[in-house]
Amino acid sequence: xxxxxxxxxxxxxxxxxxxxxxxxxxxxxxxxxxxxxxxxxxxxxxxxxxxxxxxxxxxxxxxxxxxxxxxxxxxxxxxxx
Length: 81
Description:
By secondary structure, this protein is mostly helical. It is built from four helices and two strands.
């Protein structure tokens, strides 16, 4: 398993797509598992969902980024230098 960093909504979409593909799951299968639609999942993976845009902007203006790690991982965070 690998970790992903997302500083833009496009990077978040690429990470989501990679995670889904590595699991061997189709967009339709995953959308059904989260009670969503395949087109909505596709928009998320392309980085065009307006809700994701707001999330990424909120993180950015406050100096944060999104980091995705496999569940159960141990993460060490050091302050910026």
